[in-house]
Specification:
The complex is a heterodimer of chains A (214) and B (221).
Chain A lengths: L1 E5 L3 H12 L3 E6 L15 E4 L5 H6 L7 E4 L4 H14 L4 E5 L3 H9 L3 E3 L1 H13 L14 E7 L9 H4 L5 E8 L2 E3 L12 E7 L3 H8 L2
Parallel strand pairs in A: 1-2, 1-4, 2-3, 4-5, 5-6
Antiparallel strand pairs in A: 7-10, 8-9, 8-10
Chain B lengths: L1 E5 L3 H12 L3 E6 L2 H10 L3 E4 L5 H6 L7 E4 L4 H13 L5 E6 L5 H6 L4 E4 H13 L4 E7 L4 E7 L20 E8 L2 E3 L12 E7 L3 H9 L4
Parallel strand pairs in B: 1-2, 1-4, 2-3, 4-5, 5-6
Antiparallel strand pairs in B: 7-8, 8-11, 9-10, 9-11
Classes of the chains: A alpha/beta (214), B alpha/beta (221).
């Protein structure tokens, strides 16, 4: 894959190293040229100095043929703007933004951007370590069971949960909307831009992908 | 109107002052506490100390009740996010975002800012006109820069001199509004004859500005 990473801090450089060692083509962008020292001398990707949402710089980074784009600077707004530029202006298929502020993370996730908030994840993981009896929301994935996140597109709008669930194979457990997360009932109707969280049997994954055109 | 201004630098301060003077209800959000204290003393506006990119602060500033938000901080990414939050979370109909770096104007428009205002470009354009001693002056632009009112001093060798207005092939979307001849103001009709030294005022779409200039001044620049 051809992957662009904006931000060469600890996370950005670690990610660049991982992807590049797996044989992917990686371009890293950072405002500060000294940041690239973190990549070490084994990194064989490209580095560019500048702003992660500068259209000209992104074109030079080869964004028009990129498969994935990750904005992981330490600035939430920079990441949100860069990610939206990649997604909406350059139509990159896979775009991920790192967002520290949980509230902004929720809002932009509900608006359809793929957002990872280290703050939310890490706090939840710590909670799960401290209160061990508590069911851990982030350890639900096993060999037999997976969690799917599905954005509601035209083919699902207007359907209700009963029409979508496949008993024993696929179960929608939560819907994320701008107003908040809801736990659906069988007659809950799907709206455009809803994000479905569903539990799926791993053995039924192929079937589900085909059914929903994923 | 209820107007929310985020960022109280020179632009934000001056804007708040003017809007408050014309009896709008103005609320300012500013990060810097000492600036907030100053403004609260000087202006009749509500001041909220905090980061305008934080939805909680926008809520506290009453974003829900606002008719319009103007994000005028010195950071383009902040202005863009503020406008998006105002629109998506608080459902404001009108968002104005200051563009600091002209490169970002396109991005603002693409990502949903209703009215990006590119101060750098506007100032550069005015200065460019002033320093180039042109016969052609842009008096004002509106409709987000798509339409302009321009003034052209007809030079002695202008190809339209001694011709009637109806015989001049004006470019599409251009119209002559008035002619200043010495002290007189003439509203041009079809049979009005243009003369050397006339100041012609015209309304034109910005795309056709060069053709209009070419027609009236007789040289393509």
């Amino acid at each position: 894959m051809y992957i662009i990473i904006v931000g060469c801090g600890r996370v950005g450089s670690e990610l660049a190293g991982l992807l590049s060692s797996e044989g992917h083509d990686v371009v890293v962008i950072d405002k500060n040229p000294l940041a690239f020292q973190r990549l070490g001398n084994t990194f064989n990707g490209l580095t560019l100095v500048g702003n992660g949402y500068d259209l000209e710089l992104l074109k030079r980074a080869g964004i028009e043929r990129a498969d994935a784009f990750c904005a992981v600077t330490n600035g939430d707004n920079t990441n949100l703007v860069s990610a939206q530029v990649a997604k909406k202006i350059f139509k990159i298929p896979k775009v991920i933004a790192r967002v520290y502020d949980p509230q902004r993370a929720h809002i932009y996730a509900a608006l359809g951007l793929e957002v990872i908030s280290g703050t939310i994840l890490f706090a939840a993981m710590l909670r799960d370590k401290i209160i061990e009896s508590r069911f851990s929301s982030y350890l639900i994935e096993t060999k037999e069971l997976g969690v799917l996140e599905i954005e509601v597109k035209d083919n699902l709008v207007g359907k209700n949960i009963q029409e979508i669930n496949l008993p024993g194979e696929f179960l929608v457990v939560a819907i994320r909307r701008l107003e908040g997360v809801i736990l659906p009932e069988i007659n809950t109707v799907l709206k455009a831009k809803d994000i479905l969280m569903a539990v799926v049997k791993v053995s039924s994954l192929k079937k589900i992908r085909a059914k929903f055109n994923l | 109107m209820h107007i929310l201004i985020v960022g109280a630098g020179k632009v934000g301060y001056f804007l708040a002052k003017r809007l408050a003077e014309s009896k709008h209800v103005v609320t300012i959000v500013e990060k810097d506490k000492s600036i907030c204290t100053e403004i609260a003393k000087e202006l009749e506006v509500l001041v909220v100390n905090g980061d305008g990119c934080d939805p909680r602060i926008l809520e506290e500033a009453g974003a829900k009740r606002m008719d319009v938000v103007a994000a005028v901080t010195g950071d383009d990414e902040d202005n863009l996010i503020i406008c998006q939050l105002a629109k998506e979370v608080f459902h404001l109909k009108r968002t104005v975002g200051r563009v600091n770096n002209p490169q970002n104007e396109h991005t603002f428009a693409e990502l949903g800012v209703d009215i990006p205002v590119d101060a750098t470009k506007i100032i550069a354009k005015i200065i460019e006109e002033e320093v180039s001693f042109s016969d052609f002056v842009n008096l004002m632009s509106f409709k987000r820069g798509k339409l302009a009112i321009v003034r052209v001093d007809l030079p002695l060798d202008s190809p339209v001199i001694n011709r009637a207005v109806k015989d001049i092939p004006l470019p599409k979307d251009s119209v002559l509004i008035s002619i200043l001849r010495k002290e007189a103001v003439i509203i041009p009709k079809g049979d009005t004859i243009l003369m050397a030294g006339d100041d012609v005022i015209a309304l034109t779409s910005v795309g056709n500005e060069p053709q209009l200039l070419n027609l009236l001044v007789g040289k393509l620049e």
